[in-house]
Write a structure and sequence with these properties.
Elements lengths: L4 H6 L1 H4 L5 H8 L3 E5 L5 H10 L4 E5 L24 H12 L4 E5 L8 H6 L3 E4 L4 H14 L3 E7 L2 E7 L7 H5 L11 H4 L3 H20 L8 E6 L4 E6 L31
Parallel strand pairs: 1-2, 1-4, 2-3, 4-5
Antiparallel strand pairs: 5-6, 6-7, 7-8
The chain binds zinc ion (ZN).
């Protein structure tokens, strides 16, 4: 399929890059990415992936837009308050790029529906705002053999890592199980600087673009940690794979999906 004149112009800054070019742009125009959570991380990730021309973007979120979301969830506007986030996000994405097909999942992501949801996609973005969902995304991607980019933000800090089957540790290799309830404050309790969501969510989009086009080095086997107050990045090397990991280790004890105990809901 040849690119149209309009596409050649729209994606000209990608096409100029030797790492992307027409070939990479065609891969993006054929790729499917699922974003779980249309909040702080999912908002910039969805917008940059839409702008990049990703063929199909899935957006899963059960919440509606609240006024306190707008400080960082830039895919939603003041007029969207009260609307389902998936609807508001889909409208923004479609306005940004008519090349993109949006599929929305206005439902709570659980062990009942996640396997079917991720099956249709090439890459998954973890924009979830709570630990049980983050572990569920990991488990579903490990069992379903799907790559995903994990990220988390709090106060002035953010972190991200990418999982690709057979190429590095999974989220459970590093963190094992969710922390006890209330051990880690949520963004609602502790706050988060809005631009941190933009920085880290945009990097998740970048990981997806690199995976789709097969360029560069992914954050597999390392965790990038950003301190926005001191403007410092640390790239922490992770073990290749943890043999005792309950899901990707040598003798896995997790062989089917389950829901970790739901904690107090937090909003990114
Ligand atoms: Zn693992």
């Amino acid at each position: 399929m040849a690119l149209t004149d309009e596409q050649l112009e729209r994606y000209s800054r990608h096409i100029k890059l030797k790492e992307i070019g027409v070939r990479g742009q065609k891969k993006l125009l054929a790729a499917r990415v699922l974003i779980i959570g249309a909040g702080g991380l999912g908002a910039p990730a969805a917008m940059y992936l839409a702008a990049a021309g990703v063929s199909t973007i899935g957006i899963a979120d059960c919440d509606s837009v609240e006024l306190s979301n707008l400080q960082r969830q830039i895919i939603h506007t003041t007029d969207d308050v009260g609307k389902p986030k998936v609807q508001s996000a889909a409208e923004t994405v479609k306005a940004l790029n008519p090349d993109v097909t949006v599929r929305t999942y206005h439902e709570y992501v659980s062990s009942k529906n996640i396997a079917e949801m991720i099956a249709d996609y090439d890459f998954i973005i973890d924009g979830a705002d709570n630990f049980p969902t983050k572990f569920l995304i990991n488990d579903a991607c490990v069992l379903g053999r799907k790559p995903f980019c994990h990220a988390g933000i709090l106060r002035f800090e953010g972190q991200l890592m990418t999982y690709v089957p057979e190429q590095g540790p999974c989220y459970r290799c590093i963190f094992g199980a969710p922390p006890p309830r209330d051990a880690v404050p949520s963004c609602r309790e502790a706050g988060v600087i809005g631009a941190m969501a933009g920085v880290i969510g945009s990097m998740q989009a970048l990981e997806a673009v690199k995976y789709i086009t097969g360029q560069g080095e992914l954050l597999t086997g390392s965790m990038l940690i950003f301190d926005g107050l001191k403007m410092g990045w640390r790239r922490v090397k992770l073990p290749k794979r943890v043999p005792s990991c309950p899901i990707c280790g040598d003798s896995p004890t997790i062989t089917e999906l389950f829901d970790e105990e739901q904690q107090a809901c937090s909003l990114l």
